[in-house]
Amino acid sequence: MNLDDLIALNDEIAALVRAGVPLEMGLAELGGDLPGRLGRFATALAQRTAQGESLAQAIAGDAGQLPQAYRAVVEAGVRAGRLPAALEAVAAILALRDGMLPPTANYRMPDAECDLDVIPNRARAAQVEYALSNSFAFGGLNAVLAFKKR
After folding, report:
1. Helix 36-50 vs helix 23-33: angle between axes, to the nearest 10 degrees?
2. C-alpha distances in angstroms, 121 versus 67, 115, 135, 142?
3. Which domains does the chain have, with CATH numbers?
């Protein structure tokens, strides 16, 4: 899986988890929306999670598709019950390491009155020196991780 695909998949899975969408359903929909190999990979993950595997188990079953470090972070996030935070940290680290900003999740239609610099559909190359990952929880258990490129 290439870097653009990994960034897109990571971002979509993070959005599904944050939204509370059951992964087997969200990944199945995602598989139908994404083109080519990435769509087939999302569909395979959907089928494995529908059979009762955790996301970490499903990803480990396709070990050749994703970097070992990514699989380890997903497993740690699942075990700690903090998968969204783990996936956001991956996005921040990839942005720093590879100079790629992740696409805006679920961006479908531009709004002419909204003057935000969104990154539609595909990751974008950029000179990234710093990245933030926000984790907000009920009861004020909030955290912000700040990353700096060395």
Report:
1. 160
2. 22, 17, 23, 29
3. 3-106+117-148 (1.20.81.30)
